[in-house]
Amino acid sequence: MKIVNGNFLNNVKGYTAAGVCAGFKKSGKKDLALIFSECSAVSAATFTTNKAKAACVLINMENIKNETTRAIITNSGQANACTGYQGYEDAVNITKLVSNELNIQPQEVLQASTGVIGIPIPMDKMEIGIKNICSSLSIEGGEDASNSILTTDTVKKVVSVNVEIDGKKVGISGMAKGSGMINPNMATMLSYIITDANISKDMLNSILKESIENSYNMISVDGDTSTNDMVLSMANGMAENNLIEKKDEKYFILKEAIDYVNTELSKKIARDGEGATKLFETIVVGANTILDAKKCAKAVVSSNLVKCAIFGSDANWGRVICALGYSGADFDPYKVDLYFKSAKGEVQVAREGMLIDYSETLAKEILDEEYITIFVDLNSGESEATSWGCDLTYKYVEINGEYRT
């Protein structure tokens, strides 16, 4: 696998993209993005578990069943969630407007919206924006597209890799947005994974479903699961490798690459948490089961008390033990060993669930770094899991206290 630097889509064949300003944001920044496959592609998706699903999610849950997909359109500024029947009709009309401009079927259009909940999309601006963006598609347009989907994000999030399958170069590129309302159980989090691999719809779906369990579903910024979050993937076959239609060596080569893209995008989302200054990961080993390991790891990065301690560089290890204890995992708290690690070194702060003598000075130096690892050994089994989160700062409250204004 080769990591590729550059704009979204530069390493995949048969795709174009664009990002334009349609007037959805008061800031005047680009706020409408489009990804288009020049030929028929198969697609797969995962969607939020929130019962109050946005209109775009409901439309996509139907359109993803179509055998082919050609386009993904995203507006930023209004979530079109909790907007009732009219919001749903607007979402339907968006697919029709895009399909008319691109000469494809409405069922071949997937869509996403992100922004303030309860605010309908201004369809007069959307209609003009769609005409504009469909005439602006290009390979270089991936740069504008990756910026147009952002809301409170401070940076764009793009990861691209190449692999070789059947002697053919296969490209995989992903772009995402997400900064707040992040606690995916498949957060507001949007991610698009595009590849030119030749793969069946069933196998692409299998890869995506498995991949999100160890990537997006293992991050947390603030514990809120959005109405709009989704991961969408398209594969158009233009790499011309032999069709991947079973779980063979080719399948696992592609899966490893997609796993990498999703994991790196997840870490970028966690690091860009609203107001965040640090990214921290929690590695849990020695669990009885994978499920126990995941419950423990996710509980730690989701704990507001742990996140505050990370912000303050306070080695308050008792908060970690506390989070493990309410995670629902099966373990013995009097077997737990706990360490803090970073580029400044490593310090063990608890043994067998109790305080040990350690250097508070070293612990603070370790926690002052921007990338920190909380290492937990449950000493109960052979399973392990990793999760990612960010610190909780004063800025988070400021951003969300004034989100609409």
UniProtKB/TrEMBL annotation:
Site (Involved in the stabilization of negative charge on the oxyanion by the formation of the oxyanion hole): 114-115
GO cellular component annotations of the record: cytoplasm
HAMAP family in the cross-refs: ArgJ
Protein family membership: Belongs to the ArgJ family.
UniProt subunit comment: Heterotetramer of two alpha and two beta chains.
A GO BP annotation: L-arginine biosynthetic process
Record site feature (Cleavage), residues: 187-188
Source organism (scientific name): Clostridium grantii DSM 8605
Reaction it catalyzes: N(2)-acetyl-L-ornithine + L-glutamate = N-acetyl-L-glutamate + L-ornithine; L-glutamate + acetyl-CoA = N-acetyl-L-glutamate + CoA + H(+)
Top-level taxon in the UniProt lineage: Bacteria
Enzyme Commission code(s) on record: 2.3.1.35, 2.3.1.1
Descriptive protein name: Arginine biosynthesis bifunctional protein ArgJ
